[in-house]
Amino acid sequence: MSEVARPTLSDALTERMLELIRTGGHRPGDRLPSTRELSQRFAVTTPTLREALRRLEATGAIELRHGSGIYVGAAIERLVLPNPNMREIRAAQLLELLDARIVIEPPLAAMAAERAGQEELATLKQVLDGAGSHLRGEDAELHDANMTFHRATARLAGNSVLHEVVDSLLTVHGPEQREILQIFDDRRRDYEEHVAILSAIEARDAARAEELMRSHLADVKTVIQHRMRPR
């Protein structure tokens, strides 16, 4: 029988840091004690503390700001997190990720059509207006706007867990998503499909919003499959 791995000092310290955040009532953006104060509080060396802090930073639980301090991260309350150790995705795995988006995002678009408020819809329109101003080669800005649109649409559905799932999937294959902007010059097509989805959401047409989101993601998958074929 294999021996059960014992928790290391860094493991224990990571848990104690999370307990400090929870019991202290800290919220995302709140500043935490300094490295020196934490070392004294937990009676550990600075290198041990820094290892625990790096672990927490990798999952978004804390944010280390150079010259400013340690802050509670925006992901501290998330239930679903992208793998911080992910390096490269195999072709088959990428297509599976897209299949997952095709299953998840269309129903969320329908839910957004039913639940989104006017202010939220106005914000979503601002995102697309920003994307429309970056169709002439500003691919980094366009990519950010496109991903913001999909994340925001999932958020408007009103289910925080499913929103986090979509956010994690987008984070995992972000580099591949940026690459397809270079293929077939499809920037305009992507933008127009996003506009059509938003129009359906604004019209409270849940069935149409779901149909358009599914068609849009299927187009993305087709482009990626084409890129993956041996030349």
TrEMBL record:
Alphabetized Gene3D superfamilies for the sequence: GntR ligand-binding domain-like, Winged helix-like DNA-binding domain superfamily/Winged helix DNA-binding domain
Domain (HTH gntR-type) ranges: 7-75
Record's keyword annotation contains Plastid: no
SUPFAM superfamilies: GntR ligand-binding domain-like, Winged helix' DNA-binding domain
A Pfam family that the UniProt record links to this protein: GntR
UniProt KW Thylakoid keyword: no
Protein name as catalogued: FadR/GntR family transcriptional regulator
Organism expressing this protein natively: Nonomuraea maheshkhaliensis
